[in-house]
Specification:
Layout (H helix, E strand, L loop, with lengths): L34 E5 L5 E5 L2 H8 L4 E2 L15 H5 L11 H10 L4 H25 L3 E2 H6 L1 H11 L6 H12 L5 H25 L4 H8 L4 H32 L1 H9 L4 H12 L6 E5 L3 E3 L2 E3 L4 E4 L1 H4 L34 H18 L4 E2 L21 E3 L1
Parallel strand pairs: 2-8
Antiparallel strand pairs: 1-2, 3-5, 4-10, 5-8, 6-7, 9-10
Length: 398
């Protein structure tokens, strides 16, 4: 594959034009074939995978690497190479490095551990909703409900003071903004790394009980490893769930018959969350990989050193697996979705994310049966520039 094979129509733009429906993947991400050629911002060719079967195959194949240090790894926007190749978290490492660091954190996110956290999460959700209701209608559901809940949960789990949430939220949003200048991104990383390193050292001295203190107390991890992995958990632990909560709320308000089903039968909430994860798939820009050797995929030869982009959002709309995939159906069996990725690199915190979403949405629907948008749907401001899709704000009334 080379750039002469491609034309301007094959240029993959990030962020991309959303098209008609803000819940759908951008039209430019959806191709007629499951494996197609595109060109990145700098002219570098890349393979775009749209099909569920192809995406799942690559994410479970060790011949495709998640390590951005490999030549040919697809950089989706300018200025991010240094960020992805220096001090990488386990998300950007292959085995055995990946497994070594991931196993250290696995126990904190086991289903049994998360199930024991449910009463505490319910209290946080109720208290947060009480505070929003006390301020009165209308309210911004993002600022008053969707963001505080996962922030409080992850801060408690990590051992990070919640009163610092403004500091790390502002910087994490800068990191996830595809339009942020490289210098601004680097500064945000440095500031967060210094913050977490200092906090880990303090936690060790004072015997902190959070993940951060536990990692620091082990003695076999470098300060860089502790900070980079804590940074990943901190950002992923609140931004993703906050965006899914607000987007899910809007999707249900726009499909009131679906919300009515959940109110009538709360036992559907677990399956509904899986369907919302599939339908919304907030990582719209896909997961990048690079081939370590020649691999044939769906009759196409992907050569060693060529980049691949696994489009989770389009794979989760694949009609072969999800009939009428562009429609929301809270009673659909969507458990095979790829919203959390797949294979060894799939999201470590998915049990916690599921629990938070189930509790937050069930509580919101139950306690606010008259919940509605406070502005026309067309006036909602979506975070189209972010790697993790969401809403800037969500004005609601009840």
């Amino acid at each position: 594959m080379n750039t002469t094979d491609l034309n301007a129509a094959d240029l993959l733009t990030i962020p991309a034009d959303r098209g008609g429906c803000p819940f759908d993947p951008p039209p430019s991400y959806r191709k007629d074939t499951s494996v197609s050629q595109v060109s990145l911002w700098d002219g570098t060719p890349c393979w775009l995978l749209n099909g569920y079967r192809e995406v799942r195959a690559v994410l479970t194949d060790s011949r495709f690497s998640a390590d951005a240090r490999h030549p040919g790894f697809p950089m989706l926007i300018p200025g991010r190479r240094e960020l992805l190749t220096q001090k990488p978290s386990f998300l950007r490492l292959d085995d055995p490095e990946h497994s070594r660091l991931r196993k250290i954190l696995t126990g904190d996110f086991l289903i049994k551990r998360v199930e024991a956290m449910r009463p505490g999460i319910q209290r946080i959700v109720d208290d947060t909703l009480d505070a929003m209701l006390a301020k009165g209608s209308p309210a911004d559901l993002v600022a008053e409900f969707a963001l505080p809940i996962p922030s409080l949960v992850i801060c408690d789990l990590l051992g990070v003071p919640y009163e610092d949430h403004g500091f790390f939220q502002q910087r994490s949003q800068r990191l996830l903004d595809s339009t942020s200048p490289a210098g601004s991104v680097r500064q945000a990383v440095d500031e967060l790394t210094e913050y977490l390193t200092t906090l880990a050292a303090k936690s060790t001295e004072e015997g902190g009980e959070g993940i951060l203190g536990r990692l620091a107390a082990r003695g076999d991890l470098s300060a860089e490893e502790i900070a980079s992995n804590a940074l990943l958990l901190l950002i992923a632990g609140h931004e993703t769930t906050a965006n899914m909560t607000s987007l899910s709320t809007v999707a249900l308000l726009q499909n009131p018959e679906q919300a009515d089903r959940l109110r009538a039968d709360p036992s559907l909430i677990r399956g509904a969350v899986e369907e919302l994860l599939r339908y919304l798939t907030i990582v719209h820009a896909g997961l990048p990989r690079v081939a370590l050797e020649d691999v044939e995929l769906d009759g196409v030869l992907i050569r060693a050193g060529e980049g691949v982009l696994c489009m989770l959002s389009t794979a989760n709309r694949d009609e072969e697996l999800f009939a009428a995939g562009s429609e929301l159906d809270v009673e659909r069996d969507a458990r095979r979705h790829l919203a959390f990725g797949f294979g060894v690199h799939q999201c470590l915190g998915q049990p916690l994310a599921r629990a938070e979403l189930q509790i937050a949405l069930e509580t919101l629907l139950r306690r606010l049966p008259q919940l509605r948008l406070a502005v026309p749907f067309e006036e909602l401001k979506f975070r189209t520039e972010a790697f993790v899709y969401g809403l800037r704000e969500l004005p609601v009334a009840w």
